[in-house]
Write a structure and sequence with these properties.
Elements (H helix, E strand, L loop, with lengths): L22 H16 L4 E3 L9 E4 L11 E19 L7 E15 L5 E7 H14 L4 H4 L2 H6 L1 H16 L1
Antiparallel strand pairs: 1-2, 2-3, 3-4, 4-5
The structure holds cobalt (II) ion.
The site of cobalt (II) ion has 6 residues, from helix 2.
Length: 170
Amino acid sequence: MKVTIYPDEALRRKAAVIDEINDEVCQNAEEMFDIMREAEGVGLAGPQVGWSRRLIVVGVEDELPDGERALINPVITDEYGTLLSEEGCLSFPGITGNVVRSEVVDVSAYNLNGEKVEIKATGLLARVFQHEIDHLNGVLFIDRMTPASRMSVTQKVKELERLYQKVRAS
Ligand code: CO
């Protein structure tokens, strides 16, 4: 498993619902944790490791109970307020930009034990949830950047596209 880099098509696919928590799901979650920690990221979604399933791992550890750092089939059930802040993404090395997100989100999901969990998140955790759940729907943070940020990263995004074509052709 390794991190899928933009513009790999895997990032634009809508990920499938997980209907059984089996060994594959648990092992992939473990591997995703390892990848996220190594990259010093705060979140990672299935499509970002080429696994098109609705699972996210979250690395904002202080704000979550221990068993709820891997979330299966997460859904935002409510959201309030808006907040502008800078974001990055492991699938976009070297690129950051401002994104407006909801300030508070209620997330409903399942943990790896198959238990339903409801989480009210604020601050960075709320932002990570929105960013990672977007990944499950093929939505990327460049889609949501403010027009000024989107403009400022245009060249870097094009570089990633060129690099991807080059690697593909070789
Ligand atoms: Co991302």
